[in-house]
Protein: RNA polymerase sigma factor 70 region 4 type 2 domain-containing protein
Amino acid sequence: MAGQSAAMARGKRWGPPRTLRPEDEAELVRLYVSGGYTYRELAEMFGVSFGVARNAVYRVTRPLTYYTPRR
Structure:
């Protein structure tokens, strides 16, 4: 655990790299918030999965609930 804490302090990220570039993610969120598109439509437009589209929107619209660890 000490190694993980040290890595976290250095800003290390776990998991695979993000599928969308930050610019594309911002555009996806903008389109979703405008109300004209569903997650499925946006996923198809950007060539990603439904979950990637949903998570991109959740990171912006629900930042506290999305990252709160479950106990």
About this structure: The chain has a mean pLDDT of 87.
